[in-house]
Amino acid sequence: MNLAVLIEAFSDGPFGGNGAAVVLLDRPAPAAWMQRLAGSLKQSETAFLLKDGSDWLLRWFTPSCEVPLCGHATLASLLALGHWQHLQPGDSLQLWSRSGPLSVCLDGANPRRGSVVLPSGELNPAPIPAALQLLLSQRLGCGPEAFWTSALGYAVALLKPELDLAAMACIAADLPAELRAGLVLMQPLNDATPGSPARPRQLEGLALDFQLRFFAPGLGIDEDPVTGSAHALVAPWWHGQLQRDWVVGWQCSDRPGGVVSRATSSGMIRLFGSGHLLWDGTLLTEPQGSGPAGKTLSNASASDDDGSWCALRPGS
């Protein structure tokens, strides 16, 4: 029997933040089955957790493909493990993923809050694509001030603070092919930035520094509501601009939310956030051809898990 929850990550209450389904597997499941389930659940990401001995393995699927990194579904997975009492308040562990081991920690006072450590990656300055310059000039009246690519596959564009990024209609359908795997549009927040009723002045007692939106139609996500991996990617640039090791970002989507990002000694980024449990249940479907419940990778064959689960194991 596989347990499942839906947690709205980076949100203190219902109907906000970014929804992620989290499935607790009782055996290695084939990628094809997980992809079909993610397509049925229709969240921006569905996370699959598998306990293998003392290790926890984690994979993420959009409705159309598996992805190498997802911040909000990692936070949701952490909070789900607390909900299922596999973790107690204050506990920390590593989740093994396609992006390596990710450290997570459940808040000691509030089990609906936690932190996750994500890789960041370097932003590589690049010429502003002509198609993006034209698109943003048409939508906002002005193109980007700067543009970067990244090893994560996301592109990042910096906008002037006075542009109304929050009010801009979704641009996913008009993105050129080279930007469809992920585009972050970000801007500093100051007195010139148009106001938004949903945007608070502070998050956890800290003033907001910047806001962003994220579009990834190539991953089956026209616009992601609150994107942990995008905040982790751009946080070091903002650290440098503001000359401090923490920054506060706001994602001004139609389900907005905020993220506190702090630098770590390893060069990775620790993201802090809350989550709201929307529903809790069990799946009434089982992976086909995955063997009896309780089977772990130590006695599973490649036909059980298509080999991808084994690649996540420590030391493999």
Question: Which SSEs are present, and which pair or pack?
Answer:
Elements lengths: L2 E7 L8 E8 L5 H11 L3 E8 L2 E7 L4 E2 L3 H13 L8 E6 L2 E7 L6 E6 L4 E3 L4 H11 L5 E5 L4 E4 L24 E6 L13 E2 L2 E2 L2 E7 L4 E4 L3 H15 L3 E6 L5 E7 L5 E14 L19 H4 L11
How would you portray this structure in words?
The protein is of the alpha+beta class and 316 residues long. The protein has 2 domains: 3-119 and 276-312, Roll (Diaminopimelate Epimerase, Chain A, domain 1), CATH 3.10.310.10; 123-267, Diaminopimelate Epimerase, Chain A, domain 1 (Roll), CATH 3.10.310.10. 17% of the residues lie in helices and 35% in strands. The chain has helices spanning 31-41, 71-83, 130-140, 228-242, 302-305, and strands at 3-9, 18-25, 45-52, 55-61, 66-67, 92-97, 100-106, 113-118, 123-125, 146-150, 155-158, 183-188, 202-203, 206-207, 210-216, 221-224, 246-251, 257-263, 269-282. The strands form 2 sheets. An 8-stranded mixed beta barrel has the order 1-2-3-4-6-7-8-19. It has a two-stranded antiparallel ribbon with strand order 13-14. The radius of gyration is 19 Å and the shape is globular. 46% of the residues are buried.
